[in-house]
């Protein structure tokens, strides 16, 4: 049985209306239950430790490519960050508005089309919201071939980034401090965002690592030779209890992937 804290609280909150449950394909068909009930079932189903944290993480599933967007904010504050806004911007905007949250920044792990498709809509509504991306990944925002959207027939470009991030950068946005880590392999400029919050750190990993798997390395700027060493150095070096929020699929932990991920 998974070890949990005595205080029943969890930083991942699922919205409790039936329409959103249907859109997010949450594996339970409950309606009008308290948020904590969803958190509890998420913990039981996916074996992710429940945590008492000052930071809330709201996952939004974008059905195209089953990409996970994350809205992150300090509890009881209106400013937030949006990580990898995917190809369902209407759901992302609806979630932000229902939660009365204002995005001050969009953080991009890598520039593939399914992780950047929501940027134009967010920028149109929140014009002061800035776009952050790794320094070696920025060209994908303005090139449909590099971001692979042209290959899937929808030719997406989203405009240039506002801020380019380097490996090891320490940033504070919306009252949240995080560290940038460069993890190439899936794409040359892929970065992850680590928040060293107590009691368990949070890692927004994009397509670097998944529950029981890792990202593809057969894209034009992927590199299988450096992918696993980069993951071991930049991800598996974090504390075992760190919760990993991947770009596709359910959350996991560093410790779980160390023990059970067959690719590592």
> Strand-and-helix sequence, N→C?
HHEEEHEHHEEEEEEEEHEEH
Largest sheet: 6 strands, mixed
As a percent range, the share of helical residues equals 10-25%
Query: From the coordinates shown, what is the CATH architecture?
Result: 4-Layer Sandwich
**Cα radius of gyration in angstroms:** 17 Å
Give the terminus-to-terminus CA distance: 24 Å
Secondary structure category: alpha/beta
How would you describe the shape? globular
Determine the strand fraction and express it as a percent band: 25-35%
Going across the biggest sheet, name each strand in turn: 1-2-3-4-5-6
CATH fold group: Metallo-beta-lactamase, Chain A
CATH class: Alpha Beta
Total number of beta strands: 14
What's the number of structural domains?
Answer: 1
Name the average pLDDT.
84
**Number of helical stretches of at least 4 residues:** 7
Oligomer: single chain
What is the CATH H-level superfamily?
Ribonuclease Z/Hydroxyacylglutathione hydrolase-like
Secondary structure elements and pairings:
Blueprint: H1 18-24, H2 35-46, E1 55-62, E2 67-74, E3 79-83, H3 89-98, E4 102-107, H4 113-116, H5 119-125, E5 130-134, E6 163-165, E7 170-173, E8 176-182, E9 191-195, E10 202-206, E11 209-210, E12 213-214, H6 224-234, E13 243-246, E14 252-253, H7 254-260
